[in-house]
């Protein structure tokens, strides 16, 4: 991921595929902390004080928003990558595959 982000201005990494790849990496990297904070932490009494301390902050709203964020964002990115690969095979010289 670091190689792609640092070289994204080069022509080989400036395609639509790598832009969608970077956005999907963002989803994947933020998914694990979100699941831990919003799903796993409420099940263990050790973390109740931490959750009560964050009441009124962004974490409470994020606990309701993150399932929709990931349920819509990740499949949409996978769909875009799949469509791009299909276009790359069906129409290799199209502007959409560049």
From TrEMBL:
Keywords, ordered alphabetically: Membrane, Transmembrane, Transmembrane helix
Sequence intervals crossing the membrane: 16-38, 50-69
Pfam families noted in UniProt: 7TM_GPCR_Srv
PANTHER family: G_PROTEIN_RECEP_F1_2 DOMAIN-CONTAINING PROTEIN-RELATED, SERPENTINE RECEPTOR CLASS GAMMA-RELATED
Listed name of the protein: G protein-coupled receptor
């Amino acid at each position: 991921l670091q190689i792609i982000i640092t070289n994204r201005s080069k022509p080989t990494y400036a395609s639509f595929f790598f832009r969608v790849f970077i956005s999907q990496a963002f989803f994947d990297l933020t998914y694990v902390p979100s699941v831990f904070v919003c799903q796993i932490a409420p099940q263990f009494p050790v973390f109740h004080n931490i959750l009560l301390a964050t009441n009124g902050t962004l974490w409470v709203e994020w606990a309701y928003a993150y399932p929709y964020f990931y349920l819509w964002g990740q499949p949409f990115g996978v769909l875009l990558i799949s469509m791009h690969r299909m276009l790359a095979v069906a129409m290799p010289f199209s502007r959409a595959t560049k």
